[in-house]
Design goal:
The chain is built from 15 helices and no strands. Helix 10 runs antiparallel to helix 11. The chain starts with a helix and ends with a helix.
Length: 270
C-alpha cells in the first residue's frame, strides 16, 4: 500500500539537485535533438534529417503518452497495467529517470529485489528527489535491510520535510531495529503533522493506532482509530475500499467487532 501512495505522488512537483537546464535534458533528451535536427532540415532540406526528426518525435510522444497513462492508471488502482506501460516507456528510452522511478515504485511489494536497482538507476540519472529516496527506502524495508532503509528515508526528509511516507518508513525501520516505542510513535506523529494528503494521513493514523494497540494504550488507540474513520471519508474510492479493511481489523483488535460489522455492512449496502 505504501508504494502505491508514493507512486501517485512521485511526480507532483518532484525536485532535483540538478540545475534546471540539465534536468530538462535528462527528463526529455529528445527535445534538444529534435530542435537540432529540425534546424538542420530547415537549413539543408535533407530527407534523412526529416526522417530522423520524425522518428525522434514519434519516440518522444510514445514515451510521454505511456508515462501519462501509467500515472493515471496508478491513481485508478490498476498497478499491473501501469507497470506494463512503464516498461513500454523504458523500451523506448532505457535511461528515462521518470520511467525507472515509476516502474521501481510499482514493483516494491511484488519484487523488491527488482525494484531496488531501478530506483537506484533513477536517482543516479536524476538525483535529489525525495519521493524516489522514500520509494527506495520502501524497497529496502521489503528486503529486510532496515538500516539502509532508514538512511534513505532520512535522505528523503533532508530533501523534503513534508515527505510523509518517509516518516512511516522510519517508524517501520525503527520497529525492526528494536528502537523504543516512543521513537516509533514520534516518527508517526511527525508524519501526521507533515502531511496534508488524506490518503497518507489515513495510513499514518492506521499505523499509529496499531502501535498504540501493541502498547496496550487502549483509550489512545480508540482515539487514533476514530481519526482513521474520519480521514477515510476524504480518500479516493480505490484507496478507501482497501483501507477500510485495515480499519475493520483495527476495530476487531480492540474488541469493537459490532462496529466493524456495521462498517462492512454499510459498505456492501453502498
Amino acid at each position: 500500500m505504501m508504494n502505491e501512495r508514493i507512486g501517485t505522488t512521485l511526480y507532483r512537483g518532484a525536485s532535483s539537485d540538478l540545475p534546471h537546464p540539465l534536468r530538462v535534458v535528462v527528463l526529455v533528451p529528445e527535445a534538444p535533438l529534435i530542435l537540432l535536427l529540425g534546424a538542420g532540415f530547415a537549413v539543408f532540406g535533407s530527407p534523412l534529417l526529416a526522417a530522423a526528426t520524425a522518428t525522434l518525435a514519434v519516440a518522444f510522444f510514445v514515451r510521454a503518452a505511456a508515462l501519462y497513462i501509467a500515472r493515471s492508471l496508478v491513481g485508478a488502482g490498476r498497478h499491473r497495467d501501469a507497470e506494463a506501460l512503464a516498461r513500454v516507456a523504458l523500451t523506448v528510452y532505457p535511461w528515462s529517470a521518470d520511467a525507472l522511478a515509476l516502474r521501481g515504485t510499482l514493483l516494491i511489494s511484488s519484487s523488491p529485489a527488482e525494484a531496488e536497482p531501478l530506483l537506484r538507476r533513477s536517482l543516479a540519472l536524476l538525483p535529489g528527489r525525495a519521493a524516489v529516496h522514500a520509494a527506495l527506502s520502501g524497497a529496502l524495508l521489503e528486503r529486510g535491510r532496515h538500516t539502509e532503509a532508514a538512511a534513505e528515508a532520512r535522505r528523503a526528509l533532508e530533501l523534503d520535510r513534508s515527505c510523509a511516507v518517509a516518516y512511516l518508513h522510519l517508524a517501520q525501520a525503527d520497529i525492526r531495529a528494536g528502537a523504543s516505542p516512543t521513537a516509533v510513535e514520534d516518527w508517526l506523529r511527525a508524519g501526521l503533522s507533515a502531511t496534508r494528503d488524506a490518503e497518507m494521513e489515513t495510513m499514518l493514523r492506521c499505523a499509529l493506532a496499531w502501535h498504540l494497540v501493541g502498547q496496550e494504550r487502549c483509550a489512545e488507540a480508540r482515539l487514533a482509530t476514530s481519526g482513521v474513520e474520519a480521514t477515510l471519508q476524504r480518500c479516493g474510492d480505490i484507496t478507501r475500499s482497501r483501507l477500510r479493511v485495515r480499519l475493520c481489523e483495527l476495530l476487531v483488535a480492540q474488541g469493537q467487532t459490532e462496529r466493524a460489522r456495521e462498517l462492512l455492512s454499510s459498505c456492501a449496502a453502498g
